[in-house]
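User: For my dataset I need records formatted as: sequence, then structure tokens, nothing else. Please produce one.
Assistant:
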Amino acid sequence: MAQAVSFLNDFKLGHYMKIPPRSMFLVQFMGTMLAGTINLAVAWWLLTSITNICQDDLLPPDSPWTCPVDRLFFDASIIWGLVGPKRIFGTLGNYPAMNWFFLGGALGPVGVWLLHKVFPKQSWIPLINLPVLLGAIAVMPAATPLNYNAWILVGTIFNFFVFRYRKQWWQRYNYILSAALDAGVAFMGVLLYFSVGMENKSGLSWWGTNGEHCELAICPTAKGVVVDGCPVK
């Protein structure tokens, strides 16, 4: 399901970025098949080889296994099923102000269009693509500020300065650079896992092997609920 959603999202972004549909389909089909097969194989290997991988109460305190995807779908079922959106994003919840973002998303392209009409000589205004810009915000809760700072820095250097002043280099190597950065992250993730993260067998103790560092994440957010060790709203 996640791969299918990613497939469609990438198709949408490809449409906004004027990438030919046939090229997008071939690349996305091959990438989705490869990623889905590898993800399923790794998940099956982890679930069958590590005891109590998704049971935090049965794991040792310094265990790196947290099953975030498992909790993600569980939390989604609780929010939209058991609790209901009214107690979270409605009048009985703590986050009703988030509903205003739907209005902001609808009016955003209108604002860009008005700016283009008022300042027709500004060539940078038509380059503002809110679906692309706001699409990255959707994954911001799962990312850290470091991820976005690095993205802004690298993107500005290579897609603005290099694109403007070294156009031939950009045309020949920028796509390769993007693939190399993605592959580097994947390789480093595997390297760090086997060297300093795998059940901490290396004997190293650092912040990456000492839990999630957010003890209050398990605290309730409803007003008036009292739990030992948690603040009361």
